[in-house]
Specification:
By secondary structure, this protein is an alpha+beta fold. It is built from seven helices and four strands; from the N terminus they run βαββαβααααα. It has helices spanning 26-38, 89-110, 130-142, 160-169, 191-197, 200-212, 214-217; strands spanning 10-15, 66-73, 77-84, 123-126. Strands 2-3-1-4 form a four-stranded antiparallel β-sheet, sandwiched between helices. α1 runs antiparallel to α2. The longest helix is centred in the middle third of the chain and has 22 residues, at 89-110. The two termini are 24 Å apart. 34% of the residues are buried.
Length: 225
């Protein structure tokens, strides 16, 4: 499946230092979302980033560093599925450095703290197997269930309808983008995955399979991330 794609895909993730919270409220979450857009630009320089930028930011031309195919922000960590623009790994490094540094500056300024916010350098895993590639977008989105349905990782979700409702209501991931709405359309690139993941109905069916029999649906080590 991934053999015919012309770019390398990476699963990128990081946690707060000592597993601390990295977002305290919805303003912080919005600031992180904006960072996914703002810092994905080779021409953007991180300066004073202690507030949301609202002036014409989304209208000017950009030179994207990466393509963000899927993401999920949780209270103490994030997951991204990305590919480097021009298939140049240096672009991924540049984007992640700007994203982590820019958000840390914002967070430390707002909460009057200093020092590291993230648990070291981000982790980056090359997706080089079809089974991994087909599962990872769903896995990223399913992180949103960890607070209310953590049993999904063991295939013990009893109320599948309620779990799906939580996923669809969660604002801080790209899940709804793949169900057909324009959620975060300025952030995500859905061209490569949309056809592979199938229709919204097919994606929902696969998610149901994962949360009721995850050990069969994916590599077990992924469920521990």
């Amino acid at each position: 499946m991934i053999l015919y794609l012309y770019m390398d895909f990476y699963h990128v993730y990081n946690r707060g230092v000592d597993k601390r919270l990295v977002v305290m409220d919805d303003f912080d979450r919005l600031r992180f979302m904006q960072g996914l857009y703002l810092y994905n630009d080779a021409n953007h320089i991180v300066r004073n980033v202690g507030r949301l930028v609202i002036q014409n930011t989304f209208d000017r031309p950009r030179k994207q560093l990466v393509h963000i195919h899927a993401f999920c922000l949780m209270d103490n960590h994030y997951h991204l599925l990305v590919s480097s623009a021009d298939n140049d790994p240096a672009n991924l490094s540049a984007f992640m450095r700007k994203l982590n540094m820019g958000y840390t500056k914002y967070f430390n300024e707002k909460y009057e703290r200093s020092g590291a916010l993230w648990q070291g350098k981000y982790k980056s895993v090359l997706i080089d197997r079809d089974a991994h590639f087909m599962f990872i977008p769903h896995y990223i989105h399913l992180n949103a269930l960890d607070s209310s349905f953590p049993e999904w990782r063991d295939g013990k979700v009893q109320d599948v309808t309620a779990a799906l409702a939580v996923l669809q209501a969660y604002k801080w991931s790209s899940y709804r983008s793949y169900l057909g709405d324009n959620h975060y359309r300025s952030i995500t690139n859905r061209r490569e995955l949309a056809g592979i993941l199938g229709t919204p109905q097919q994606q929902i069916a696969e998610i149901k399979r994962i949360i009721t029999q995850p050990k069969e649906a994916a590599d077990s080590e992924l469920l521990e991330l």
